[in-house]
Amino acid sequence: MVFAAASGSILSRVPGKKRTRSEPRVLRAAQWLCDAHARRERFAPLPDDLAPRSVDEAYAIQDELVALRAQQLGAIGGYKIALSTPQMRKFLGVDEPQAGVMLESTLRRTPARVRAADYVNLIIEFEIAVQMADGLPAADAPFSRSRVAQAVGAVMPAIELADDRGAVYTELARRPLELICDNAWNEGAVLGYPVEQWRDIDLAQARGVASINGREIGEGRGADALGHPLDALAWIANHLASSGRSLARDDVVITGSLVTTKPGRAGDLVKFAVAGLGEVELRID
User: Fold this and answer.
1) CB neighbours of 63 closer than 8 A, spacing ≥ 6?
2) What are the two backbone dihedrals, phi and then psi, of residue 227, each rounded to the nearest 5 degrees?
C-alpha cells in the first residue's frame, strides 16, 4: 500500500527557493546520476568535471536529481537524515549529518512488501518517523525542539528503504559529498501506524528493537540519532530554512537510524518495534 504523504504540484514540492534553472554543470551531474539509476549501475563517484565543489553545490545537484526522479515517483513526501551518528560522520570525515528527500510513491504503510530485484543493493535502516500536522515556514527559523514539537501531528516507527547500489564505502569516504548528490540513497520508507497521543512518551528513551526472520539483530533508543528525534526534526527544518525552504503539513521526516544498517535480502521478514509507538513490518520478496 502506497502512502500518499503530500499534495501539490511537483514543481511546488521539489526543493529549491524557486524552480529556476541551475547552471549547466549541475544539470549534467543530476542527469548523469539519473541515468546511472535507470541503467541500474553500481554506485560510482561523479566524473571529475561534474563532481560537487561545495556542500551547497552538492545539494543543488540533489535538487535537480529529485526533480528528474519526481516525474515518475511523485511529489515530495518528506525528508530523511543520513549520518545521524557521530561514528558515521567520523568515518566519512564530515561534521554534519546529510539530508535527503523522500518522494510520495516510495512511502508505504505497514505491513508492506517490496522486491529485492527492484533495487541494485537494498539496505534498510530502523528509525522513528514524525508526520507534520502544521508547516514550519522558513521565515520562522531558527527552530528549537520545543517549536517543532508544536507542529508534529503523529510519531511512528519506520523502516527506511535505501539503495547503496553496491557502493564501496572506503571510496565514498574520500568523496562524501557524493552521498548528498545521490539523495542520500533514499528509496522511501515503510511507516508504522501513526500515534497521535505521543506527547507522554519519552522519545529519547524509547527503545527500538529490530528483527529479521524472528531473530533480534539490534536495538537502540531515540537519543541515538542526534540526541533526540525532535532535535533531528529541528535540524531538518533549519537545514531547509537555510535555503528558503519549509517543512509542509503532512510531510514525513525519518529522524535517523537507531540500529546499524542491514542488507535487505529476498525472503526476509523485517520488523521494528518501538516502545509506545508500535511495530512496522516489511516483507522482502
Assistant:
1) 14, 15, 16, 22, 30
2) 90, -30
SS3 45: coil
pLDDT tens digit string along 71-109?
Answer: 999 999 999 999 887 877 786 778 889 999 999 999 999
Asked if 192 contacts 280 with a C-beta cutoff of 8 angstroms, the reply is yes
**Domains in the chain, CATH or no CATH each:** 75-284 (3.90.850.10)
pTM of the entire structure?
0.91
CA distance linking residue 106 with residue 96, whole number of Å:
26
List beta partners, residue 99: 81
User: Which residue has cell 523522500?
Assistant: 102
| β-sheet with 269-274: strand ranges across | 112-114, 278-284, 269-274, 207-212, 215-221
Q: What are phi and psi of 170, to 5 degrees?
A: -65, -30
| Helices (H) then strands (E): counts for the chain | 7, 12
123 grid coordinates: 539496505
